[in-house]
Design a protein that fits this description.
Layout: E1 3-7, E2 10-17, E3 21-26, H1 33-38, H2 42-48, E4 51-56, H3 75-88, E5 94-99, H4 101-112, E6 117-123, H5 127-131, H6 137-144, H7 154-165, H8 170-179, H9 186-189, E7 196-201, H10 210-216, E8 221-225, H11 237-248
Parallel strand pairs: 3-4, 3-5, 5-6, 6-7, 7-8
Antiparallel strand pairs: 1-2, 2-4
């Protein structure tokens, strides 16, 4: 059952299941905790492995409060929602797994609150975390278009169709994508001191090279999810297995 708490004036929804060492799951853009982590089997797998799973609905997504001002969607502030959730649950330290936008949020959490992150997995966003993943304005325009039938660009149509499939608030997502893509510099990720796994699909043009990002972070490991793109990597068994081994080894 989804729960809610107040994150500095914003209502945030989340799921808690299982017992054991806590692991925080942060989903990607236009997704939610259920689509990203429950439907793909991640929650069942982690709980079955003796973990306490906390899965957040990022602001503007899922059952969390919808906001329409892009300035309220900075990735560092969204990372504070995750930190406040750990505070709310009285969890001092957690492993963190972020996918796509969730990986960017997880990076800010690890950079700004290193004492709260035992280890971190960056999934679905690697080289793109540093170099960027394209301009957000066309995606915002696609989300605000009267209908997807008016869109001709394949990427725009793909984002719009996914947002509709997840039953998202399109205007809230348009505001989010205009505000959440804060760049992270190579110098910032070099400061991450906890164990890091960077995982990206071999066909994932959004994420870019896992090796590129891993080389910037001291001690980080890279894992390539062979044959998978941005949408298919998250539920890939190879990805799940690599993360399980990473966590079992203590990061």
């Amino acid at each position: 059952m989804t729960r809610r708490f107040d994150s500095d004036g914003v209502e945030i929804a989340y799921l808690v299941e299982g017992v054991g060492k806590p692991v925080l799951l942060i989903h990607g853009f236009a997704s939610n905790h259920r689509v990203n982590w429950v439907d793909t089997g991640w929650v069942r797998h982690l709980v079955g492995g003796g973990r306490k799973v906390i899965a957040i609905d990022n602001r503007g997504h899922g059952e969390s409060e919808k906001l329409y001002d892009p300035s309220l969607y900075g990735a560092p502030e969204m990372a504070e929602d995750s930190r406040r959730l750990l505070d709310h649950l009285k969890i001092p330290l957690a492993d963190v797994i972020g996918y796509s936008m969730g990986a960017r949020i997880a990076a800010f959490l690890a950079i700004n609150h290193p004492a709260r992150v035992r280890s971190v997995v960056f999934g679905g966003l690697a080289e793109g975390m540093i170099k960027g993943v394209g301009e957000p304005a066309p995606i915002a325009a696609a989300l605000e278009a009267p209908t997807a039938d008016l869109l001709s660009d394949p990427q725009q149509k793909s984002y719009r169709r996914f947002a509709e499939a997840t039953k998202s608030d399109l205007k809230a997502l348009a505001a989010c994508i205009m505000g959440a893509r804060a760049r992270i510099t190579a110098q910032e990720v070099e400061k991450i001191s906890c164990p890091v796994l960077v995982a990206a699909g071999s066909e994932d043009a959004v994420a870019g090279s896992a090796d590129y990002l891993a080389r910037l972070i001291p001690g980080a490991r890279a894992f390539v999810i062979e044959g998978k793109d941005h949408m298919t990597s998250v539920g890939a068994r190879d990805f799940t297995r690599a993360v399980s081994e990473f966590l079992a080894a203590g990061g």
